[in-house]
């Protein structure tokens, strides 16, 4: 049986089991599913029991519930979610000025095996369903209102997993999040981050998506990138660059390049030169990210001096550069630290 929130809203209305229902009834159902963030069929209070029984006969309802909340000294919050069909994922709330960003997961675990990443060390792996993805947004939004007196303003798919390896469910979830009958959040406030899955980026371009695209690059040298991100062996830099050029050509969007600085691995001025050459091929901005050591990986963060020299070089080449200091380090909520531990 298909999960009810894995279906696009317009397809649900046409489903045979709802064909005899009045349009207002279908509207009530979609509001419960995509706007009110229910976690179970039984919560559709104004829908007759017979219709709920019909839905239960035709669909499953998989959900994600917050089980643990950890608060960092810097006000970042990490949450663990239990999936009703089994498995754990994590999400993070990052307040900054008048913005609150929800960092959400697209998979439980990740097969891409980047050597610096805690998620890659998880034994289990599964694609999340669209409902499990939107549950993270619903629940982090409620938590944000409670903790910071304001809801989530931005969403980044940068938590556990590679979103483009779970393309259909992620796209369905983003549609639920952005459609006005759903959560109605502007696609401009959503960023999908990929490790560089070329066919997925091509599909995004073909679908002319309106949300933002970020690419976790971490090196513009094939040898170094392949050594820390095995995905680079399959989709090397030249192919990735060509695809990002096509993506920009189709969507006219500026791309964000994410670059974690590792001490003496990818943080020399020579590395910055290669990055500048890579980034010249399409309009982009570069986020330089401070690394949070993950036990047992052997990677260390770059020193302040090397970070400064790296970003100064890029700025001298007229690149747009932001240095992102790490948030939530004390609760393992920082970039690359999500690992579905039972906290
Ligand atoms: S860094 Fe991202 S793509 Fe790489 S293993 Fe971790 S979650 Fe997967």
Outline of the structure:
Helices cover 35% and strands 20% of the residues.
Can you give keywords for this protein?
2 domains; TIM Barrel; ten-stranded mixed beta sheet; two-stranded parallel ribbon; single chain; alpha/beta
Give the CA-CA distance, first to last residue: 32 Å
- Range of helix content: 25-40%
The general outline is globular
Radius of gyration: 21 Å
The count of DSSP E runs of length 2 or more, i.e. the number of strands, is 14
CATH topology-level name of the largest domain: TIM Barrel
Classify the secondary structure makeup into a structural class: alpha/beta
The domain count comes to: 2
The assigned CATH architecture of the largest domain is: Alpha-Beta Barrel
CATH superfamily of the largest domain, called what? Answer: Aldolase class I
Instruction: List the total number of helices.
Output: 11
Instruction: List low-pLDDT spans.
Output: none
> Biggest β-sheet, characterized?
10 strands, mixed
Beta content: 15-25%
Order of helices and strands: EHHHEEEEEEEHEHEHEHHHEHEHE
Hetero groups: iron/sulfur cluster
CATH class of the largest domain equals Alpha Beta
Give the neighbour order of strands across the main sheet: 3-4-5-6-9-10-11-12-13-14
Mean pLDDT: 93
